[in-house]
Amino acid sequence: MATVTIPPRLYGWAPPWTWAVLAMVSIQTGSAVAVSLFALVGPAGTAWMRLSFGALILILMVRPQWSAVRARHVPGLLGLGVATGVMTTAFLTALQTLPLGTAVAIEFLGPLTVAAITGRTLRAGLWPLLALGGVVLMTQPWAGGVEIVGIGFALLAAMGWGSYIWFSQKVGDSFSGVQGLAMSLPVAALVASVFGAPQAWGNISWVVIIAALGITLLTPVIPFSLEMLALKQMNKRAFGTLMASGPAIALVMGLIFLAQVPNALEILGIALVIVAGVATQRSGGRADFARPASPRIAVRRKSGGGEE
What's the pTM value of the predicted model, to 2 decimals? Predict the structure, then answer.
């Protein structure tokens, strides 16, 4: 993939964390705005259109080297695509009945669990439990009226995110940057089409297409560019630690765009999830909070091929 040089004057005027925060705001804004399409094309239809447009745009941006794909790479690319499609479709479906902040907090259990498994220490195993406690505070099962279906889809999204991390690390060992992600997104769009195409078919209009393109710009195009700027000035651990604040930003975007007002217990629950996420990142495990809605740029040393 060709290297794009960004002049420092375009990003040096603001602290590096600014770009990372704006990227997360864009991601969660895109998720919140996507809810507006549910009445027209359904959550699965929205996921299908977003992944389809995302695949097209990312392929044009990245220009993946298809000639480098070998037979041994195919299982990983297919697995990454399936994980991405399942995660995106399940997450948007969960938003039908769950607040945005709650859905994101539950989804975070996926990467936290992966980090606990790969961490192989007692301390690493405690952080997902802390996050689970935060999720319990957010869902408040003792209050009655628990959205079982929404929680189920959010947990499926968490499994998808955990699988995405596992497959992306495998694929990342074979392809630099986001080449593997660009190659796998068409598979993700195909997976989402199983339920998305029937939901959306017959309701696709130019208004829907333009709205879906706008959501695609919010996730992943704009975050992709902003994270490029952030990662030029931040190390991977600092960036990942900052990304752990995603549930809090989701809570704010849910309040602004969807009028989802959290109570004190929900705020405390979000805080516990963030603490667990920050602690996981600071522990130095390989798993991070990268996700296909926000492709990370993997900086690889030319000599050894490892990540910096």
Answer: 0.88
Q: Is 21 exposed, middle or buried (0-12, 13-18, 19+ CB in 10 A)?
A: middle
Q: Is residue 6 part of a domain?
A: no
The answer to whether residue 98 is domain-embedded is: yes
**Based on the structure, what is the number of domains in the chain?**
1
259: number of Cβ within 10 Å: 7
Which of 138, 148, 45, 150 shows the shortest CA–CA distance to 95?
Answer: 150
Measured CA to CA, the distance from residue 16 to residue 229 in angstroms comes to: 7
The helix/strand/coil state of 194 is helix
Domain range for 120: 15-282
Question: Span 99-126, mean pLDDT?
Answer: 88
Encode pLDDT of 161-187 as tens digits.
999 988 988 888 888 778 888 999 999
On whether residue 300 sits in a domain, the answer given is no
Task: Give residue-wise pLDDT tens across range 65-111.
Answer: 999 999 999 999 999 999 999 999 999 999 999 999 999 999 999 98
* The two three-digit tokens of residue 40, written as one number: 């027209």
Dist CA 184 CA 270 (whole Å): 31
Residue 292 DSSP SS3? coil
CA–CA distance, 88 with 293 (Å, rounded to integer): 8
Question: Between helices 16-34 and 246-258, what is the axis angle to 10°?
Answer: 50
Structure tokens at 45: 């239809």
Per the listing, tokens 């969960």 go with 94
SS3 140: coil
The DSSP annotation for 193-233 comes to HHHHHHHHTT---HHHHHHHHHHHIIIIIHHHHHHHHHHTT
The count of other CB atoms within 10 Å of the CB of residue 8 is: 10
What does residue 294 show for φ and ψ, rounded to 5 degrees?
-145, 75
Best CA proximity match to 181, nearest among 297, 72, 300: 297
